[in-house]
Design brief:
By secondary structure, the protein is α/β, with parallel strands linked by helices. The chain has helices at 4-13, 27-42, 60-63, 125-136, 141-154, 165-175, 181-189, 194-205, 222-228, 274-279, 298-312; strands spanning 17-20, 47-49, 76-80, 101-104, 115-118, 208-210, 215-220, 250-258, 261-268, 284-285, 289-295. Strand 8 and strand 9 form a beta hairpin.
């Protein structure tokens, strides 16, 4: 495993770099990739982000200035915030065996890069990218803005328990560059579309409670998305909803991606290790936030998840 200094030195030797982001991209993968792209360009390197077909409108302003042209032929490939090859978008799969450097913060990281830098203690991959870029030169506002997106979104605007003193120190350093952090906070944490509110209302109206009301299951079937005519932007980070319910320490969000294909997102407290639960179903992530995909009808998929939770939590009861 590389050190921060070694990762920075590797990047200093790279040129014509293609940076990969994960399926259903979030603020951390996009912000980390965009900041790394800006940092490499500041060194005079050619660097681009591989277009991500699932990019949302909220994240597009940070991604599109770095998007690779169709004819770009990379010499080096870097992945940011991708824990497993299964999380590569379809257009990234041809690069699965060509990742020269993988940078991540998930305990479940699979080690697919030729070289890897992984720090599970980091609240976001954006924290790691900040440390690497700081080794390469001054952090500019162009790097700092997407880094703030990366760090703030992965720790719930510094409210989640993955937030550390280093997280706050990085955020403070980013703010000192003069970035417009208030616009970021408004867009990601204090704005909801009417369709988003309709989604949340429907999810809460059908919520199921288990384990003495400590486990909440919220479903987002394709029919619901179609009924309210929601976009991917409207459905961004729906997994945060269940964790806001008093008394719930294991919020399970089921999103139907295709007929009978359910993406599970868990947000948990100390009693339930989300990574351990999701690993039983082929997924992974962090102790308090993890995910997996199950191909089965709704009731069967839900049952598999509850059984996985029961295997991990000794006092679990339906």
């Amino acid at each position: 495993m590389l050190t921060v200094h070694e990762a920075a030195e590797r990047l200093r030797t790279f040129d014509n770099v293609l940076i990969l982001t994960h399926l259903r991209p979030d603020g951390d993968t996009v912000g980390s990739a965009a900041a790394l792209c800006a940092g490499l360009r500041a060194l005079g390197k050619a660097a681009y982000l591989l277009p991500n077909p699932e990019l949302t409108d909220t994240l597009a302003p940070y991604f599109r200035p770095c998007a690779a042209p169709d004819d770009f032929a990379p010499e080096k490939v870097v992945s940011t915030d991708i824990a497993a090859l299964a999380l590569f978008p379809e257009n990234a799969k041809p690069y699965a065996e060509r990742v020269d450097l993988a940078i991540d913060h998930h305990p479940s990281f699979e080690g697919f890069g030729r070289e890897n830098y992984v720090r599970p203690s980091a609240a976001a991959t954006g924290e790691i990218i900040y440390d690497i870029l700081a080794e390469l030169g001054p952090i500019t506002a162009e790097m700092a803005l997407p880094l703030y997106v990366a760090v703030s979104t992965d720790c719930g605007c510094f409210a989640y328990n993955n937030t550390t003193a280093h997280t706050h120190a990085v955020a403070a350093a980013l703010l000192r560059t003069g970035i417009d952090f208030q616009t970021v906070n408004k867009a990601f944490f204090r704005t909801k579309s009417r369709k988003r509110l309709a989604l949340e209302a429907a999810m809460l109206s059908e919520i199921e409670y288990h384990d003495h009301d400590r486990v909440a299951v919220l479903a987002v079937p394709m029919s619901l998305i179609a009924r309210v005519q929601a976009t991917e932007t409207d459905a961004e980070d729906l997994s945060a909803l269940g964790g806001q319910i008093e008394g719930v320490d294991c919020a399970v969000t089921m999103r139907e991606l295709r007929p009978d294909v359910w993406k599970f997102s868990l947000r948990t407290g100390p009693r339930v290790n989300a990574t351990t639960v999701c690993a039983l179903l082929g997924g992974g992530g962090h102790a308090a936030a993890a995910g997996c995909t199950v191909e089965a009808p709704f009731q069967e998929a839900k049952g598999r998840m509850l059984e996985a939770i029961a295997q991990v939590v000794p006092d679990f009861t339906l």
